[in-house]
Amino acid sequence: MAAVIVWAVFRTVGVDDLIVALTVAGLGLGLPAIVAFVVAWILNSLGHPDADAVDPQAGEPVPPAPKAQFAGVAWGYAVAVLACIAAWALRAALDPFLGHQVAYAPLLLAVAFSAWYGGLGPAVFATLLGGAISWYAYLIPNGRFGALDAGDSVQLGLYGAAALCIGGIASALRASRERAHTLAREVLAREAGLEKTRAELATERDRSQVTLQAIADAVIATDAQGHVTFANEGAVALTGWPTPEALGKPLSRIFRAIDADSRRAVAVPLERGAPEISSDVMLVARDGTERRVEAKVSAIRERGGSAGGFVVVFRDITAARHAQAALEESEARFRVMANQTPVLLWMCDATRACIYVNSSWREFTGRTLEEEAGDGWTAGIHPEDYGPQQAAFAEAFDRRQPFRLEYRLRRHDGEYRWILDDGAPRFDGAGEFAGYIGACVDITERRLAEATLGNFEQRKGAFLASLAHELRNPLAPIRSSIELLQRMPAIGDPRVAHAHEIIERQCARLAELVDDLLDLSRIDSGGIQLKRERIDVAPLVERAVARHAAVIRDRRQQIDVDLARERMRVVADAERLAQIVGLLVGNASKFTPQGGQLRVSTAVRENAAEIVVADTGPGIEPSVQPRLFDLFDRYPDAGPDAPQGLGTGLAIVARLARLMGGAVSVQSAGAGQGSAFTLRMPLADRAGETAAAGGETGDATTRKARLLVVDDNVDAADAIGTLLNLNGFDVETAHDPEMAMERAIGTDPDIILLDIGLPGMTGYELARVLSAHPVASRAKLIALTGYGQPGDTEQAKAAGFSGYLVKPVDVDQLRERIETLLAEQADVRSEALRGRD
Asked: Are 309 and 223 in contact (CB under 8 A)?
């Protein structure tokens, strides 16, 4: 019977087999076993908390952690103990009613509950524990574990068999349910995976279609038989077949290709699986339009290796072919031009290696392109120029900047020639640096001409300086003598006074011509030095006009001076600015007929001081105005009575104005309409001006100032000495360095007027000797010479001169300079006296 029960328990599956097992158990064990079987079946039908938790979104089942698994087993055995205790308590409570009847029924229920909760292990444990409880509590002798008789042993054995059967059946049901749940989870996980795969495939399909539609290339896909299954917009545009009409049609009908030369049809090699189609293929669209295309065919392989379809990718290369042809034509044209030009052309790559030289270069050097390639061309550079040339080229190369170099390059005959090398960086179509390209020109003749011209300019400067000195030396005594004669009692004959005026005027004119030529020479050579000081415009204009008052009066001209009321200050060289205004006024008077009108006005316009000199002269045609300020350019239509000149005045005006930051312009309505010259100078920064403070400076002593005039030209020394005597100074003269030293020591002069060109010792050397003497060193030195170059002025300052005047000197200017130096000496003495107090 036990064997039948065990077989029924472990071999039954499903409800029908369970009924068979219950029937067998009932026949052998009675109603309590059937009740226990039913309870176990009901509990297992309710499911287990762990087994019921099925997540349809979960993937493969995750095995529990070791600690969680151990805790579950422990709880299973603990529940078995608690179930047995509860069953024992229930049986003890029913003892008054049952006595020894159905002694094992509650314990069988505990076994069923333990099997439902913990499985077969806790069920076996509950069976053993229940058997021990029955042996102890319900078998004779009661209350202890004693020897059993045959009936109790059979009863205990039947209990064990029934309990094991119940536990086995419940465990089997529990295991079946867990397997069912596991299978359900696997099915759900696989369905979720399939759904995810379907979504990914759909997304990938959409992405592929969008990508194929967006790319610039045309794409056509076919099945294994060559029928079109897909065509993107690029393919529609090139073939002229809309996608709905193209689907299902043979590829040869949609993609009609012909050979560009033979005009024969070209079939797409789908059966051979050739990857490329000749680039000389012409695609014939649906409307007959032909385009040159390049195409590529790829097979879609299935798992077995057979072609499941084909993809044709093609693009229109008509424009690219035209561009390539144009590029090749341009390259050929460049090479023809490069080889025909007499200029030496070269090209290097991004590593500074020479990659091309034209035929003119090869003819110049007598070397081939292979010999010049790389750095071979540098073998022709002159050894003295190699280092500087390479360093300058490397610096420009690193900075990617254009350069211009001059160096000597060996010609094919061995002669080194000077060349001018202009190089510029070049970049490819992507904007990447590709190297340099340059052109070289033989400038040997130009350098020789520049050297010759430089020597000529140097000699011209020296000649002009000597000319000025030689002209000014005789002019100085002439002018001094004229002024002396004017101060002497006049002779009764008026013709003498008139002759004096003529001599003085022509002498001044000659001095002006010499000064103009020297000014132009200094300006054009960059040797002129300008002072930068704030000056008032109105007083300067008045002084410049006053210098020409006599000439204007002699010509019976009327001049109107209209100066702005507001104070105008500019930053300029006062002497040069007065020279500009004077030249404009003199020019206006010169070209205005007798009895004409002149007008000089000042105004502030657009943050600039404007000085306008207008006249009623012959006017200037508009075609002549642009070149009016050029050197030696005179107005050709001034008329036969127009005064003659060198054409230097306006050239000096324009150059000086530009050097001081200003500009000069002319306005004239034409012939007979007069003209107006406008000088514009930027106003000084008024915020930076400071008010000058000071008072009248008078003589600190009652004695006359002592002057010493040193000049090897006796007439010039005596003339200037006499004029200075008439101006209230005590004057001594000397004509050589030895006499000058004696007079300087004996008379202790305040000011020494010293000529530079002295015999035996230059004025610079004599100035150093005087400065070293304890007595003569007190005197201030003023250079009075015919040399007027900028270098002479700097040399005079270095020698200790406090002033520098060029012959012929204006007496008023000389007196002003002397009085300035005497005032400075008086201030120094006053400071010394205050320091003693």
From this structure: yes
